[in-house]
Amino acid sequence: MTVYSEKIWNKHWDKHVKDLDQKSWNMSFVDSIKQSFEEDPNKMALAFLGVEITFGQLDKMANQFANMLLDNGMKKGDVVAVNLPNTPQYVIALIGSIRAGCAVSGVSPLMSAVQIEYQLNDLSENGKRKVVLVTLDAVFEHHITKIAPKLKNTPLIVTTNVASFLPKIKQKLGKLLKKIPVGKVTPLPDKKVIDFTIDILEKYPSTPIKVKITPDDVCFIQYTGGTTGTPKGAMLTHSNAVSDLMIVQKWINWERGKHVALSAFPLFHIAGLFFAENCLQLGWGQVLIPDPRNTNEICKQYGKYKPIVLVNVPSLFQILIKNPKFKSLDHSNLMNCISAASPFPVESQKELEAIVGKGQLLEVYGMTETSPLTTMNPSKGTKKLGSIGLPLTNMDLKLVDPGTNKEVALGEAGEILVRGPMVMKGYLNKADETAKTIDKDGYMHTGDVAIMDEEGYLKIVDRTKDMIIVGGFKVFSTKVEDVLAKHPAVGMIALVGIANPERPGSENVKAFVQLKPDYPSTDQKKIKEDIINFAKEKLSPYEIPKIIEIVKELPLTSVGKIDKKVLRVQK
Question: Which domain, by its residues, includes 107?
Answer without folding.
Answer: 55-213
